[in-house]
Amino acid sequence: MDGPAGVGKSAVGHLIAKKLGYGFLNTGEMYRALTWKALERGFAPEDGPAVVALAQKLKWEFRTTADGRLKTYVDGEDVGAHIRDERVSANSSVVAAHAGVRRLMCRLQRRLGKDGGVVMEGRDITTHVFPDAEFKIYLDASVEERADRRYRQLRAAGKPADRQKIKEGILKRDLNDLQRKINPLSRAADAMAIDSTKLTLHQVANKILRAVKNASCA
Ligand code: DC
Fold first, then answer.
1. Which pTM was predicted?
2. Is 173 a pocket residue for ligand 1 (Cβ < 6 Å)?
């Protein structure tokens, strides 16, 4: 599954993975984990050679949780608590643009998906990492709706939120992901496209599950 920032790929992907009895991997976590480590070590996200060397030096592990997620561990540490802050979000599309970074992540992702039975989501999964995936989805939603969802999530968590700033951040990341030279975000010709602007999480998941079932019966 591919799609732009904040479209709900992770929530939808994890839900359908559970229904199918599959594992689930959010590949954005890997790019975020590297961004967090690079910032922590004082490297500029734009510094390709330094960031790629760091990525190659780190020990990457993926451990399965009780609910079927493949969680990213770097040098033995669960990255979950570090990778969602604004600084990491704002810089991850810069880190993800380096060729050596993408090569390494693609290698890890192919290893994790080689036996099938996994829902994987990101920006280049259907176009580059698994061009022969059994089923491909491109999930989209208007930028207003994506910013609104994020705004509501932050408010519900009692965190400060500025709708305009959220929207600007999403647009900037979209632009970086769409204009990237190597494997930019795009819709695979054979992907099922879903616009989730006016749909709930469960409506999107049900649409996908019906289509998956039909495809496997064909
Ligand atoms: O899905 P996300 O917003 O957590 O992803 C974080 C960043 O990683 C985002 O800027 C795009 C990048 N990314 C990518 O380039 N390729 C992927 N397969 C997944 C994420």
1. 0.95
2. yes
